[in-house]
């Protein structure tokens, strides 16, 4: 069937929404209000959401078995299927939909098609990458808002895009964080500007291969209208821009931690410079801010400098002045669980970097300190942690291994950090983080950093990375105040 190109074209369309999480609910609610014939199929259906959807005319079926789901799809004969990022490409359900020739959309595509629902349809700035997405997204929106324009973050961060486009006041810009899962199923966007911040091994188990993961990230540049922002220190991202099919007139702009060339932003002698958005860029650059000023706000680490450069370039593509950027940076606060100091106890600094869910982001944290007791582990998502351990072995005072995928971590530590003491926390016990903090404290000496940068996903033992980070913060606070915990079982290796 043809793609519905306006809100009124959804009327009467048979739509199946796979999944009833935050985005699935937003899709079902929106399309039901547009008088589509909506059925949600979900392995688990929250009763409150089911009740709300029934009021607007959407049906819900709670089906967990893939075979039964396919039978339901055959019965419903949908014209459109909207898939949640929770469904992997190799899911038999997804494969059945594709083989049947049914239009398969993401919630991002649906939101793009329905952007006319807003009283003033926003331009979209889309951001992806293995790491730095959330900080860059938040920074970009803050910079745009500092210029007097109305901007909002959405997508993979916080509020679904569909909820933003239905805001009664509308926005000038939506700054949309996009995961590789979302991009895999997304094909219709034409953003104002877009960025791929970096590419490293991540989510290989979901995508099936590194090439498939990179191909998903590449979609962020398709049909860009103004600026394709790449990382000049990551050749893969530059190659993706070179291969992108963009709107005529779109520019490639790079960001780098080194000296910027023409049409780049970068750093020279501790000064962040714009050599991309000024008329005299062939032989001049304009100061954005300084490394010292950012360090004073806790943003002096290399990966955060890269985020600031990327956000500045994206904001500049939206017409934001340097003065606006400086004003936004003076007021910006980093989100929780990203290299966040928690406490200094007897000369040992405890750092929460629960948001380091892969090796690339964990490496950024590890490189920031010299003597570390590392709390590491969780769901590795098919990624080899060995290079990370090898690269940072000399920094380790000790290691505390958590999570269910412990053996690869233990093997890598034994091979590349044989003199580093290791404590493994039994994943089957409760109070895992309490035990991990106690174990780390037993290995740390004054001047050390206890760094919880797991380099792994959290869903094996926690709801998400924020839950894991809060568990670490709580455990450190208990230790700081002299409390005691029973902890979980552990073994010294």
What are the defining features of this structure?
globular; disordered C terminus; 493 residues; seven-stranded mixed sheet
Can you tell me about this structure?
- With 493 residues, this protein is an alpha/beta fold.
- The protein has helices at residues 22-33, 47-55, 66-76, 92-99, 107-113, 133-146, 161-165, 180-184, 204-207, 210-218, 235-243, 291-296, 302-317, 322-331, 359-366, 386-392, 406-416, 432-443, 465-480; strands spanning 14-18, 37-42, 59-62, 80-83, 103-105, 123-128, 151-155, 173-177, 193-196, 227-231, 251-255, 264-268, 271-275, 286-290, 340-345, 348-352, 372-376, 396-401, 422-425, 449-452, 490-492.
- The protein has a 9-stranded mixed β-sheet with strand order 7-8-6-9-10-11-12-13-14, sandwiched between helices. The protein has a 7-stranded mixed β-sheet with strand order 15-16-20-17-18-19-21, sandwiched between helices.
- Helix 3 (66-76) packs parallel to helix 4 (92-99) and helix 16 (386-392) packs parallel to helix 17 (406-416).
- The N and C termini lie far apart (60 Å).
- Residues 484-492 have low confidence and may be disordered.
């Amino acid at each position: 069937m043809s793609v519905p190109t306006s809100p009124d074209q959804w009327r009467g369309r048979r739509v199946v929404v796979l999944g009833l999480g935050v985005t699935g609910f937003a899709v079902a609610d929106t399309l039901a209000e547009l008088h589509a014939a909506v059925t949600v199929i979900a392995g688990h259906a929250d009763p409150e959401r089911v009740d709300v959807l029934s009021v607007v005319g959407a049906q819900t079926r709670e089906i967990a078995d893939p075979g039964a789901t396919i039978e339901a799809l055959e019965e419903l004969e949908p014209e459109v299927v909207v898939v949640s990022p929770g469904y992997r490409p190799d899911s038999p359900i997804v494969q059945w939909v594709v083989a049947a020739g049914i239009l398969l959309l993401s919630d991002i595509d649906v939101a793009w098609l329905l952007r006319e629902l807003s009283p003033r349809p926003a331009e979209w700035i889309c951001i992806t990458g293995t790491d730095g997405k959330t900080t860059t997204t938040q920074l970009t929106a803050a910079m745009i808002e500092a210029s007097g324009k109305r901007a909002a973050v959405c997508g993979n961060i916080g509020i679904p895009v569909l909820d933003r486009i239905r805001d009664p006041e509308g926005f000038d810009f939506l700054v949309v964080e996009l995961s590789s899962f979302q991009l895999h199923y997304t094909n219709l966007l034409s953003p104002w500007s877009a960025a791929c911040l970096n590419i490293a091994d991540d989510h290989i188990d979901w995508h099936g291969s590194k090439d498939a993961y990179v191909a998903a990230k590449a979609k962020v540049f398709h049909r860009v209208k103004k600026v394709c922002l790449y990382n000049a220190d990551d050749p893969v991202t530059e190659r993706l821009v070179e291969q992108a099919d963009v709107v005529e007139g779109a520019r490639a702009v790079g960001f780098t931690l080194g000296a910027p060339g023409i049409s780049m932003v970068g750093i020279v002698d501790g000064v962040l410079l714009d050599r991309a958005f000024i008329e005299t860029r062939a032989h001049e650059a304009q100061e954005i801010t300084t490394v010292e000023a950012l360090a004073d706000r806790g943003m002096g680490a290399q990966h955060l400098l890269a985020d600031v450069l990327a956000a500045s370039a994206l904001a500049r593509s939206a017409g934001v002045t340097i003065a606006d950027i400086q004003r936004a940076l003076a007021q910006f606060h980093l989100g929780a669980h990203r290299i966040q100091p928690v406490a200094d106890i007897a000369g040992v600094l405890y750092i929460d970097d629960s948001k380091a869910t892969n090796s690339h982001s964990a490496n950024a944290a590890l490189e920031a300190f010299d003597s570390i007791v590392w709390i590491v582990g969780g769901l590795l998502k098919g990624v080899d942690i060995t290079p990370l351990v090898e690269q940072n072995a000399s920094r380790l005072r000790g290691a505390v291994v958590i999570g269910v995928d412990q053996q690869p971590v233990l093997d890598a530590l034994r091979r590349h950090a044989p003199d580093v003491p290791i404590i493994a926390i039994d994943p089957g016990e409760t109070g895992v983080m309490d035990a991990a903090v106690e174990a780390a404290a037993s290995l740390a000496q004054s001047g050390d950093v206890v760094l919880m940068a797991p380099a792994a996903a959290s869903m094996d033992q926690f709801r998400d990375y924020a839950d894991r980070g809060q568990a670490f913060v709580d455990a450190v606070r208990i230790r700081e105040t002299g409390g005691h915990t029973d902890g979980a079982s552990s073994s010294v290796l």
